[in-house]
Amino acid sequence: MTEAQMDKSSKNSNGNNTHRSPAQEQGQKQRGRLQRKAQEAAPKVSEEKPHPFIGQELRVVLEDQRVIVGTLIAYLGLGDLLLQDALEERRYADGELNHRQLRLIAIPFKHVTAMHRRRPGNTPIAQVGA
């Protein structure tokens, strides 16, 4: 091969030189492995339908007998429930009943003993107390 032919064959379609040192090739392989690992570790985007209770009002009973009623805005599998515009009801040992309004609350699912969806068409609890 002539020098001109070698010069042409050593360039790729972009005109860049394709001759790399072993260190450059090793670095390129390592970058490729790191990119593949990052893609595998990235959270998978699911095409699944959202949970049917999203946007619905739920009544959640906790282990300590508190009852929280609010609108479900997020659900993480067996993780947490995220409720907005919630109302917490707590009954003390002496029979006293206490209510408090919560704008946003995260409830670890491990503390949930019961969960009920409010029937469609019923007035949301947030509007009943207003």
Radius of gyration: 29 Å
**The top level CATH class name of the largest domain:** Mainly Beta
Return the CATH topology of the largest domain: SH3 type barrels
Structure annotation, total helices: 3
| Broad shape | elongated
Low-confidence stretches: none
Average pLDDT taken over every residue = 78
Order of helices and strands: HHEEEEEH
Q: Report the β-strand fraction as a percent range.
A: 25-35%
Task: Report, as a whole number of angstroms, the end-to-end distance.
Answer: 88 Å
The percent range for helix content is 10-25%
| Biggest sheet: strand arrangement | 4-3-2-1-5
Number of strands: 5
Region (Disordered): 1-50
Protein name: LSM domain containing protein
InterPro entries: LSM_dom_sf (IPR010920)
Biased composition (Basic and acidic residues): 1-10
Written overview of the protein:
The chain is an alpha+beta fold. It folds into 2 domains: about 40 residues; about 70 residues, SH3 type barrels. It has 3 helices and 5 strands; from the N terminus they run ααβββββα. A 5-stranded antiparallel sheet has the order 4-3-2-1-5, with no helix packed on it. Strand 1 and strand 2 form a beta hairpin. It is elongated, with a radius of gyration of 29 Å.
